[in-house]
Write a structure and sequence with these properties.
78% of the residues lie in helices and 0% in strands. By secondary structure, the protein is mainly alpha-helical. It has one domain. The longest helix has 41 residues.
């Protein structure tokens, strides 16, 4: 029965994207069908085969080792602050972002990441029916992050028409940065994190192909990647370390604010209505959770987590999810985990607008105008990825 519900959910998601389409006549259905098939194939490979299990274990073990190295630096600086044996979110989830950012910087400096991003993007452009720039941007956003990716394409940013700009921004909001993947893995099962990374990549293409279909002329189908300013190794390393620290601090500050505000609103709602704000959101989002494939008796709990992610961010939602996931079925855990892995939330609208506006004010203003549609599309990507997991699980 749950397979039928998940398939129905898939149809509804595609229909919702179709209803918001800029030009329904230009939608290319063949690449969409191919990419959905690829999503299912990758999902089966990752979650249902011994090869996938081996790959995930290798990936997870690698990140676990990297986090151990990151914690060496954290313990050296902050070791006396944490209580013995205690788990401190800032120290063991956020501070490793600094180390991961430095590692990404090293790979960037030696042109390893640009090479990988460029050629994976070229391969994807053959599958998704989109331009090379759109494909490059999607892969780059999944590795370097939603802010930094716009810097790499700033040579073309000012000349991009609105429809191509939407696709670039949608990709940035639908993915997550590799620098924080390790942090996610401390709270969620690595196999679901990896599955979400791949599914969201293709899901972004699928939803954008429906909401925002267009043809890229051959003379416009180019990639003009901005070369980073020539720096010495240690200049670069210091810069990336500071960038990672800024991200960790920003995430930490946002969590302090969001968790506190949500607690306040929960208290007010509980005092007046006898039910918390997140409880209300759970009932509102329960039908969506059910359509994704969550069993009805767990739909309210899952819906509450999903809504929390949308109105705050994925870290706040993950913190709440960790508290309840042991009481949920494996199916619900898988679906919600995959849903949480993206930057699709209201705060990301401001983040992306700010990133683009910092490079080109005119284009930033254009992004601000379609901000809500951007979030709508990115949320559909998260829902689509969760549905694919529901079909497979």
């Amino acid at each position: 029965m749950h397979y039928l519900i998940s398939v129905a959910g898939l149809i509804i998601v595609l229909l919702l994207a179709w209803l918001a389409s800029n030009n329904k006549n230009k939608i290319k259905y063949r690449p969409i069908i191919v990419m959905i098939a690829i999503q299912i194939a990758f999902g089966l490979l990752i979650l249902k085969t011994s090869i996938g299990e081996f790959l995930i274990k290798g990936f997870a073990d690698s990140f676990a080792k990297l986090l151990q190295y990151a914690n060496e630096g954290t313990n050296f600086v902050f070791g006396g602050i944490a209580n013995e044996g205690a788990y401190t979110f800032f120290l063991y989830v956020l501070m490793p972002i600094v180390f991961m950012s430095a590692l990404i910087g090293i790979l960037q400096h030696y042109k390893i990441l640009p090479f990988i991003i460029k050629y994976i993007g070229l391969v994807l452009s053959k599958v998704n029916g989109m331009g090379k720039l759109e494909s490059y941007n999607a892969v780059a956003a999944a590795i370097v992050g939603q802010n930094e990716v716009f810097i790499s394409v700033k040579n073309q940013l000012g000349s991009l028409p609105k429809h191509r700009l939407y696709t670039l921004c949608a990709s940035a909001m639908s993915t997550v940065s590799m620098s924080i993947v390790g942090s996610y893995m401390t709270m969620l099962e690595p196999r679901y994190v990896v599955a979400a990374l791949i599914l969201n990549l293709f899901g972004g293409f699928i939803v954008s192909s429906i909401i925002n279909p267009y043809e890229v002329k051959s003379e416009e189908d180019i990639i003009d990647v901005q070369e980073e300013e020539k720096q010495t190794f240690f200049e670069m390393l210091g810069e990336y370390i500071m960038d990672g620290f800024k991200v960790a601090i920003v995430v930490g500050v946002m969590l302090v604010g969001f968790v506190g505000i949500i607690a306040l609103i929960n208290g007010v709602f509980s005092g007046i209505f006898g039910i918390s704000f997140q409880g209300v959101l759970g009932y509102v989002f329960a039908p969506i959770a059910f359509l994704i494939g969550v069993p009805w008796h767990e739909a309210v709990s899952a819906g509450s987590i999903m809504a929390t992610k949308l109105v705050s961010n994925e870290f706040v939602a993950m913190l709440d999810f960790v508290k309840i996931k042991d009481g949920l079925s494996g199916r619900t855990t898988a679906i919600v985990s995959v849903f949480l892995i993206s930057f699709a939330n209201f705060g990301s609208i401001g983040t992306i607008v700010g990133a683009v506006k910092g490079l080109n004010e005119k284009q930033g203003n254009i992004v601000a105008r379609f901000g809500l549609k951007l979030l709508y599309g990115a949320t559909l990507v998260s829902v689509l990825s969760a549905i694919i997991i529901g079909i497979i699980f």
